[in-house]
Amino acid sequence: MRHTRIRTRQRESHTDSYVRRIPLVRNKGAFESILRYKSTQRDDFAELQAEGDFLAVFVSVAPLVEYVGDNKIQLRRACAIKDKGHYRDQDFMQRLRDNQAEYGFNIQFAGDGRIVATVETCPQIMKALLDHRLKSGFSTLVYDVQDTTPVAL
Fold first, then answer.
1. Rounded-to-integer distance, Cα 84 and Cα 77, Å
2. Residue 116 in 3-state DSSP?
3. What separation in angstroms does the CA of 17 have from each of 2, 27, 31, 34, 55?
4. In 3-state terms, the chain is what percent helix, strand and coil (to 5)?
5. Beta bridge pairs of residue 14
């Protein structure tokens, strides 16, 4: 089997890289920017894993670390958890313990109130810490939401 060298061709403001004449990267600058962004998210997630307030919420963060891995979507969510900081709010965490079943979660808690993370419950833990599970005051249905911007009343 003959291997084709990767060739780079300048065209307009884009750089196209080809293997067997199939474009791999249309815009090298944007591609490198995405890689830097993911690297920053990895660093932020590492900082979150070392943060005392975050560690104090869990019996062990190992299942959560395994769940997030190097997945860009999960890394982005972990960064949002760090930014929102709901895990630092004792009232939020108590309401999570008290009301999680009502919202369809099956998150387990140790006797001391810390979360017992498992790979199976990690998606629920992420949604809870992002505050992405909300209940309608009108229909009383429970929804997964992406935008949790408070509405000024």
1. 10
2. strand
3. 18, 9, 12, 17, 44
4. 50, 15, 35
5. 11
Q: Which amino acid is at 125?
A: I
Neighbours of 27 (CB within 10 A): 13
Lowest mean pLDDT among 1-10, 97-106, 128-137, 141-150: 1-10
How far is Cα 29 from Cα 133, in angstroms, rounded to an integer? 37
Q: What is the pLDDT of residue 24?
A: 58
pTM score, whole prediction = 0.74
Cross-strand bridge partners of residue 17: 8, 25
For residue 63, give the H/E element and its range.
helix 62-68
The DSSP code sequence of 1-54 is -PPPPPEEEEETTEEEEEETTEEEES-HHHHHHHHHHHHHHHHHHHHHHH-HHH
Neighbours of 60 (CB within 10 A): 13
> Six-digit token pair at 15?
């750089």
Tokens describing residue 47: 């900082």
Residue pair 61/54 in contact (Cβ under 8 Å)? The answer is yes
Closest CA to 76 of 116, 126, 118: 126
Q: In terms of pLDDT, which residue wins out, 22 or 80?
A: 80
